[in-house]
Specification:
The chain has 3 helices and 4 strands. The chain is α+β, with helices and mostly antiparallel strands and 116 residues long. Strand 3 and strand 4 form a beta hairpin.
Length: 116
């Protein structure tokens, strides 16, 4: 008796869903948060309240986005991502990620990347 998954079968759909969930893709846990969700991590009163961070699992040269968040929100922000076993490309970038400045502008942390 041979066991195989045929394309379109309920078993193959379950297998694909399981693989996607295990990789963190089922809920977008490795991809950058959209701007609307990012806002709750960016509240500030002064520049010192802010820090640079990568939005997503991969660095800015490989799919992540450079952003600024409130230092007090770092742990909560990082908890939004499931980065274990997330494959990232290894492209270099000039300037390197995090090259720029963070500021508190209109009560929101903002990252200004250095111009190339």
């Amino acid at each position: 008796m041979s066991s195989s998954l045929s394309i379109g079968s309920p078993a193959s759909a379950f297998f694909v869903a399981l693989v996607l969930f295990a990789c963190g893709e089922a809920r977008g846990a490795s991809k950058p948060l959209p701007a609307s969700e990012l806002l709750k991590y960016q509240s500030c009163k002064a520049d010192e309240d802010c820090m640079w961070i990568t939005n997503g699992c991969c660095d800015c040269g490989n799919g992540g986005i450079e952003v600024a968040i409130a230092r007090s929100q770092e742990a909560a922000f990082r908890a939004q991502f499931q980065c274990t076993h997330v494959p990232c490309t290894t492209m270099g970038r000039t300037p390197v990620c995090g090259t720029g400045s963070v500021h508190c502008e209109a009560a929101r942390c903002v990252f200004h990347a250095q111009k190339k």
